[in-house]
Amino acid sequence: MMRLAVIALAFFGIASVTGAAEALRNWTNTDGKTISAELVELSGDVATLRMSNGREYEVSLSTLSESDRAFTAEWVEKQEAAAKFSEMKIELSVPTEPIVETAFDGEMPRTRKGEIYGWQAGIGEWRIEEGVLVGDELPEDNHASSLTYRFEADHLIISAQVSLGGAEQIAFACRDTVSSNLHLGRLYITPDKLWIQSMSGIAKTTTSEKLVTIDVDLDPEEWYDVTIEIVGDRYRASVGGEEIEATHSRFADAKGIVALVNKGQGARYRNVSLWQAEPKE
Question: What pTM, to 2 d.p., does this model score?
């Protein structure tokens, strides 16, 4: 590989080349000279650009235009996201855009009804302590605790880390975009079982059907990675490596709310993310 100083000079003097590959884009340096190339690597503040003829050049970010530097930052985010979802073994979909990514890594006192990092505490009591979101069901509510986030998506990826703690169960609930946001479906997590159910209605009109159940052996004090894909009529989930999947026409409806739900006290959550997605071809 040529030294950076020499390559930078070459970059300044090369005429624009039109590339057929989709990844090719025009790059402009601070002197206004342009080439067409693909960004293939970033190491520190040095970008590796590959032209349509296969030649590669290392270019310092400081010599590029502001828009090129912004593109590079977005490219890094996409690469990191791709690596993350590769590790999560996403199978049904391709993530297209983050809806919300919440680490819950700060501190927040006990909250009954109010906003927590953009999420809405509606039922039960919620708090953030030692960098972990904690949900407690309250007996007087006669309902599991619930923390919700509003959005709109046709296909959805949910990822999180959870620990049951003293809670009887944790659920990831999804509701649709119909007025009142009717229930759509849920993944339930308990120490010995996982199950997926379809749902419809709201409040007293709610109906549900348990579609599939599997036996598991989860330690309530351990943390587990959770990945959920709701793509078309398919609902696929992975919890600590245990996989479960179900199909129902209800899952194909547009999604409008995700809720973190738990029965009992001491359920713990961190690194909760929602992503827009598209089905894999």
Answer: 0.76
